[in-house]
Amino acid sequence: MKAYVYGPDGARISDVAQPKPEGTQVLVRVRACGLNRADTGMRRGHVHGAAGGAGTVLGMEWAGEVAELGPDAKGVRVGDRIMGSGGAAFAEYTLADHGRLFRAPSNMNFEEAATLPVALATMHNAVVTVGGVQPGQAVLIQGASSGVGLMAMQIARLKGARMVIGSSTDAYRRGRLTEYGADLAVDSSDPKWVDEVLKATNGEGVDLIVDQVSGKVANQNLAATKILGRIVNVGRLGGTHADFNFDLHAARRISYIGVTFRTRTIEEVRAIFDEVRKDIWGAVESRKLQLPIDKVYGFDDIDKAFEHMEANKHLGKIVVTV
């Protein structure tokens, strides 16, 4: 089968053996894949959690059909339309744990379905389960113009947030954040953004920040969060190391929580997918929660899809069809 594989000379489309499902695995005939920021690093040879390096089939998000079931797989049948996350997505066939997938709603095509699994699982966990958003609270999403950022704003709005603030350093994308739930859009590269947030929240700050940037905005986040507020760190777009104002953190009594899928067990991941199904799946099926598709590429043009992502001018998801 065809797959996009990282090798000694970089990533390229190669012929590899079709995988065979074992245990609780499902074999998926992939029809479309969503690109994610972590894919760009792995394409350069970086390791993401336990995955990466030479011989790795890249990709972590897909939509397609069940082609075969492992002996212990439950909940789906051959032919079912599904979407999910996991390794080796950029291929004609991939394997997925039966608890790490969703049924693709009948009103979505494969390209649309491929935009959702990572964003839904990541941001329901960050905003609701870990972030504990409550009706009437104010929420700030750092890096809001990414696919997962757009989903975070929509989930916060769905759960009753009275104010949703999104950040983007790009003027065009910042101008479109109100289409996806933002009441206020700020430029996190402008030091005055904290003053804008404080003004919008009557000087108190926000109840919750979901931070995909970290690094350079870490101390500004502390200043923009209210006393007893929460910061959920889900990303490293602003760097992995930075100065941190421990005194401000303590004075405001902020709960600072780190989350990632890289160190979660399969049981923990299954629980996250279960929570999405229980809590917000009706909003997915009704298309209340959805993501814009910036551009669709054919599999033979997957390098062009990555070039488009690395240009960092897109809004929403970049999709590759297989």
Automatic annotation (TrEMBL):
Segments forming domain Enoyl reductase (ER): 7-320
KW Metal-binding (keyword) present: no
One Pfam family named in its UniProt record: ADH_zinc_N
Coiled coil regions, renumbered to chain: none
Keywords carried by this UniProt record: NADP
SUPFAM superfamilies assigned: GroES-like, NAD(P)-binding Rossmann-fold domains
GO molecular function, a single term: oxidoreductase activity
InterPro entries reported for this sequence: ADH-like_C, ADH-like_N, ER, GroES-like_sf, NAD(P)-bd_dom_sf, Zinc-ADH_QOR/CCCR
Transmembrane segments: none
Protein's name in the database: Zinc-binding dehydrogenase
The species this protein was found in: Bradyrhizobium cytisi
